[in-house]
Design a protein that fits this description.
This protein has 11 helices and 8 strands. It has about 260 residues and is an alpha/beta fold. It has 2 domains: about 150 residues, NAD(P)-binding Rossmann-like Domain (Rossmann fold, 3-Layer(aba) Sandwich); about 100 residues, Orthogonal Bundle (ProC C-terminal domain-like fold), CATH 1.10.3730. Strands 3-2-1-4-5-6-7-8 form an 8-stranded mixed β-sheet, with helices on both faces. The chain is elongated, with a radius of gyration of 21 Å. The two termini are about 40 Å apart. Bound molecules: NADP nicotinamide-adenine-dinucleotide phosphate (NAP). NADP nicotinamide-adenine-dinucleotide phosphate binds next to helix 1.
Length: about 260
């Protein structure tokens, strides 16, 4: 197989499955007709079929001759779906699971001898801005390239050892909620200072976006950029130190460790 799959099956046309399908055609990487996407409620597939995707409720038809099969069903549905599609899988088909908490070893209990991928995107996949973490087992360099290239169409990708999956899930998937809670708190501070709520949210959101872009484009350490804003004896450092006295950084780290521990139970 070349890097670009000729046929991709997406099992589960929910939030994530649909976002991936739409992102892959929006980027121009794949044609809609090269993607077969399924869900059990066939009547809810109209929006996707109208865009030219092959749709239906038969997972075996979708899987038949597919180079890549993306499983976007809930974690507790993975084993049943895998057992169902196993007889229809092409010998060298790449299996990609998005299911949180399902390990590569869990997947290999049902399908072995296939390149297996465990992929954790985040909700910004809906706008092509996901941070997607990928682990693989039994995969060649070509298989890794195929899956990386697919998910690069809907954001950034990072290959990681599977042992780090819980840790990256906290920072890159749960992290969306943590960042947005900061955004909301920041806007609330603005509202208390007399700014209209909608304006405060816009100000906070664009400021966060700009701050993140500064780090992503320069590769600088965050403290290097913080130094540029914190004039000695100035306003910003007074605010920042007050936040730290109330446990700003510490509460984020402790929250992340709690989330991590709850995942490892
Ligand atoms: N949302 C996130 O931010 C996120 C992030 C990382 C990982 N994940 C993982 O991604 C997976 C999907 O999450 P989601 O938020 O997209 O869930 P979702 O919106 O509930 O989508 C799941 C889809 O699977 C379909 N489905 C269920 N059983 C099926 C079957 N036997 N054959 C074909 N389709 C079937 C459902 O439609 P029908 O009921 O009509 O069949 C539904 O459309 C989960 O495993 C989750 O852990 C999600």
């Amino acid at each position: 197989m070349q890097h670009k799959p000729e046929k991709t099956a997406i099992i589960g046309a929910g939030n994530l499955g649909s976002a991936i399908a739409l992102g892959l055609i929006k980027s121009g990487y794949l044609q809609a007709a090269a993607i077969h996407i399924t869900r059990r409620s066939a009547n809810k597939l109209e929006a996707l079929s109208s865009k030219g995707f092959v749709t239906g409720s038969s997972n075996t038809e979708a899987t038949d001759n597919a180079d890549v099969v993306i499983l976007a069903v809930k974690p507790w549905q993975i084993t049943d779906v895998l057992s169902q599609i196993k007889p229809a899988l092409k010998k060298e088909a790449i299996i990609v699971s998005l299911a949180a908490g399902i390990s590569l070893s869990d997947l290999s209990q049902t399908v072995n001898n296939h390149p297996l991928f465990r992929v954790i995107p985040n909700t910004a996949i809906a706008i092509g801005q996901s941070m997607t973490c990928i682990s693989s087992q039994n995969a060649s360099d070509t298989d890794n390239a195929v899956v990386n290239e697919l998910f690069r169409q809907v954001g950034e990708v990072m290959m990681i050892p599977e042992s780090l999956m819980p840790a990256v899930t906290v920072i890159a998937s749960c992290g969306t909620a943590y960042a947005l809670r900061y955004l909301h708190a920041s806007a609330q501070g603005g509202v208390e200072s007399g700014i209209k709520p909608a304006d405060a949210i816009h100000l906070a959101a664009q400021t966060m976006k700009g701050a993140a872009e500064l780090i992503l484009t320069s590769g600088d350490h965050p403290e290097t950029e913080i130094d540029k804003v914190t004039t000695p004896g100035g306003i910003t450092i007074k605010g920042l130190n007050e936040m730290e006295h109330h446990g700003f950084s510490s509460s984020i780290i402790k929250g992340m460790m709690t989330a991590l521990k709850s995942m490892q139970k």
